[in-house]
Model the fold of this input.
Amino acid sequence: MTAVEIKCPKCNEGMEEGFIADYTQGAVLVSKWVEGRPEKSFWLGTKTKGKENVKVKTYRCRGCGYLESYAK
Ligand SMILES: [Zn+2]
Done:
């Protein structure tokens, strides 16, 4: 089975899979999609507890550099 290659909607070049790294103190994390608007939390920066969150996969176009993200 071969993976279906995603084509860039802007220039029709092939796109490669990656993710947007979230650099935090001493670690590199994968950015996540969180439902709703960001709410500040005194201890944690931004509240995410109890909210739906999904890891974000981002494709980058080899031609023009366009980024397209999916949170499945
Ligand atoms: Zn492109």
Notes: DSSP finds no helices and nine strands in the chain. The chain has a mean pLDDT of 90. The longest strand covers residues 57-61.
